[in-house]
Design goal:
Protein name: Metal-sulfur cluster assembly factor
Shape: globular
Number of helices: 3
Number of strands: 3
Oligomer: single chain
Order of helices and strands: HEEHEH
Distance between the termini: 38 Å
CATH class: Alpha Beta
Strand content: 15-25%
Structural class: alpha+beta
CATH topology: GMP Synthetase, Chain A, domain 3
Helix content: 25-40%
CATH architecture: 2-Layer Sandwich
InterPro entries: Fe-S_Maturation_MIP18, FSCA_dom_sf, MIP18-like
Largest sheet: 3 strands, mixed
Length: 98
């Protein structure tokens, strides 16, 4: 059975190239939904104009798709609610000087 913690651990390999931190620490992953062997990921970007959306979706499919039992990964990019720096982990805030 696929565990949410394992999915988040896999998503920690998805790095924002500009900030050098992972999407989980940055608070960009809004949710994970597991339905049998299928995993849905709701995420956002720091700004709607950020050009890395397709790259991020591909990385999510790659890293989460490598988990045992996963047959399908569906990333869903949203912009509501809007991302703000307060969504970051304390470690990410420290690393970026917040």
């Amino acid at each position: 059975m696929i565990q949410e913690d394992d999915v988040f651990e896999a998503l920690s390999n998805v790095i924002d190239p500009e900030l050098g931190l992972d999407f989980v620490e940055l608070g960009l992953v809004y949710g994970v939904e597991i339905d049998g062997s299928k995993v849905g990921i709701t995420f956002t970007l720091t700004t709607p104009a950020c050009p890395i959306g397709p790259q991020v979706s591909e990385q999510m499919q790659e890293f989460v798709g490598e988990l045992p039992g996963v047959t399908e990964v569906t990333p869903n990019m949203v912009f509501t609610p809007a991302w703000t720096p307060d969504k970051m982990s304390e470690d990410a805030k420290f690393a970026l000087g917040y």
